[in-house]
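Example with several molecule types.
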Amino acid sequence: MPGIAPYGPTTYIDDITPGIYTETTDHVVDFFYVTSLGEFYDPYGFSMIDDDGGDYDSGYWYSVTVWGTYLAEASVVVGQSYDSSNNTANSALQGPSITTASYQAFIPPAWIDGPSTASCPVLQTVIYASDNRGFDPQIESYRAMQAISMGIGGLTSVTPFTAPPVEATGWTYQFSSAVLQNNQIPATAYNWNYLGDCSSKGINMLGHASTSGMTEPGVIYNGTESTQTTFSGSVSNPVPLWAFPISWNAPLTLTEPSPTDLHVSGTLHATCYPAHEVSVGGVDLSGGTWMPSSNNLAYVAGCLLGAEEVHQPISQDIPLLAPNGSGFPLTTSSGGLQ
Amino acid sequence: MKLKQVNSMVTMAKCAAILLMINIPGLTAMAQSQVHPPAKTPLAQAFADLRSGNPKLIDKWNNGGTLALLVEKEMPTIEKDTATICGALADPNPEMRLRASAILATIVIAAPQHNSVVQACFSNLIKAASNPPVQTSKNSLFPPEQTRNNSLFVLAMNPAGPPPAAHSIFVAFLHSPNYRTQECAAAGLLRENTNREANQKLVLQALDNAQDAKHRLNILYAIAGAGVRSDILFDDAQKYLFGPNQDVQTEAINAVAATGKDHAAVASALQAVVDSPTATKEQKLRARMVLGIKTQ
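Resulting structure tokens for the full complex:
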């Protein structure tokens, strides 16, 4: 596992010059994050002890967001936190607050019906393995995902502190509907020895959707007023011959009216299938989530072909990390500088 | 609603009430039908709401998957809505045309047993496909060509086959700069029941002369999706198994599998991909999957 150039594993966290580092690794990793709170998984091998023997969160914050893909790209943000020892901002020491915003499109049930297909000698109905999940931005199963870490407009200053955005799509597995046992896809069906199966044993077809329809999220810094980013794009099921894309467009404006508050506003525009989840700092935005009413093929097709769209306003306050250590986990303003 | 229209309706209702009182046979039935017009289907009511100009009624169907859900629920008896759907295809409001074309495409994909609705709308589908592309609303995620592409898809892929009258628009859109338009036009030509060889040659010309890899890829989608087995298509698709673009190579595998008349010939062509030292991991995987199907 490589370290953060020019730093290597075992480097003390407070020896690292504040900044953003990006590492690309072919190591398969799971989603994880690091904050001053709770458990974390650190593939970069940083020492979480200050070089003076103190706890790492006493003067520095350290945030890692890795989105699990076969080629993982990690944005590692290292920097000094603002002085919150007196519960107010210290303009001399206040650095940017960094947060991660993300978008995910996911299919809620474990599987959904596809159309009849003639890809086998006999016309058959097919099913697609899906994401089997509800709203939770930390679950790593999606049809499409975009994420970006950025600085938020602060009280007196903001540093344009943007980490490289991350975009990914999920794999699509197509099975014959005959594979179902007790209404579930059995684990044995994923045995690749049965690849191309037309009956009941295993994967009929699979594919990895292209990210070419996505617009890479950028960040616009409006001084101390606000920070803006937009998640947008479309992605199609890569397996069927006539796939119609999932589309979304979610412009967001982030402001930090005080050191302990973050305000997010914007709109979620999306196809009414599948579920859409916009989150900031690991918190789902109430106006930025959409759960479809049905998973029936007619509903899915109607949504993806233009029968209807979703347009939801977003306006939400999110508490930033409070001096006592409570608050939402992915924002990295933390601790008091000692 | 304008005051004049309201007054007119009140007058009609009054007349109907008088006719009911004097009970003239024939006239009574007519009056009753005016007081209680035949009940609209839920889908017809939804379309009426969308046309009403009333923001509250429009919003009801405009944000939240309610219309998509209604389409799903109405699907078992969607024939009752044939006039509503076909009529909406010719609506002056482009959003209504988009919704109608989406419902017809949904029938083709999810409920092809109700294709009589699609067939009843053929002439309006051709008109809807011929209209200039229009963005339905400022925030719509659907491209201006969505209604055209839905309509072409329905004409091309409905289980009854394309109507002969659609031939000229398939030809006209075969060289469209819009990928999906071109793809649906190519599929339509390939699925026509007449002039098969000439149509296949037209599509292969478009494939060979594609302006870029993305256009070539979409014509290969059409060749694979149309599912027409033909020696001409099979021979030509093989040219792209080892071309320079990986997406095109992978889709060529599907096209070869879908067009080959002889399973042994398909297996031989795809085995060459599996054995090729230059083929990518994904191509070999795709070829293996297709070979698995063909060797069942």
